[in-house]
Design brief:
2 copies of one chain form a homodimer. Chain A is 63% helix and 12% strand. With 119 residues, chain A is mainly alpha-helical. In chain A, helix 1 runs antiparallel to helix 4. Chain A binds a DNA duplex (30 and 30 nucleotides) through helix 4. Chains A, B: This is Transcriptional regulator.
DNA sequence: TCGACATGTTATAAAGCTATAACATGTCGA
DNA sequence: TCGACATGTTATAGCTTTATAACATGTCGA
């Protein structure tokens, strides 16, 4: 596996990158939101995004599937799309959580500074 | 504010989108990591990414700055880049945390199912 | 002050992404 | 079985991002 510039990267990094890239599109985040509480067929999703072409929805679903965020299974002539939140949890645990708690720490420091200054 | 397709979106959505898009590049995530523990000058960052052109680094820094993830201040002829983790915390709180805890809930359910099955 | 240094600006080629069109396949039920 | 339906595939135009080049500006110190 190698990046555009040719250096080697680990499979985990590739997965992580795919998830971040999948989340980078607001349309795809909306699709995930639509799948959050229940699985839906592709046709159902298309109805919920009337401004998008059916092909566009499918293309986005393919990106989400490649990132492991959506799992699809065929039932007869329908395709049921299920959300899998695990990849999001992974990047949360390995990446985002650190920054979020750094921000909390920063705010805590700021708060105690302010309190010290205005007794 | 309007998207590529012309529908209206709120300024918060735009900010959120900018943050997600900024995080979508592995190079930019590495830049953030380099700034995690200390602020650095642009020149310092360029030395740490020797495979990238100086202009490329600056362009990435501009994207990070537009997303509010990096705050820059000039000191003489140097530019010091500081990390601001707050925008990451925001998308964490408003978006990612939900999915991460959904994943935890899913795992918990699975675990208790397994335990019930193998007493 | 003047040259080396750090950074900023503008332009551009190449690669990638988004949305759509046109056509193909597979499945259900009258 | 056969037509309507749901989905799949391939191709493509237009826009965006990435990486670089060439040139410009501002600042420090000998």
């Amino acid at each position: 596996m190698s990046s555009r510039r040719g250096e080697r990267v680990s499979p985990e990094q590739v997965d992580e990158d795919r998830v971040f890239k999948a989340l980078a599109s607001s349309t795809r985040r909306q699709l995930l939101d639509a799948l959050k509480n229940q699985a839906r067929t592709t046709g159902d999703l298309c109805e919920r995004f009337p401004h998008l072409d059916r092909c566009t929805v499918m293309q986005h679903l393919r990106v989400l599937e490649a990132a492991g965020l959506v799992i699809a299974q065929r039932k007869g002539r329908e395709r049921w799309n299920h959300l899998d939140p695990l990849p999001i949890k992974h990047i949360h645990d390995r990446w985002i959580g650190d920054y979020a708690s750094a921000a909390v720490g920063m705010l805590a420091t700021l708060k105690s500074d302010l309190e010290r200054r205005t007794p």
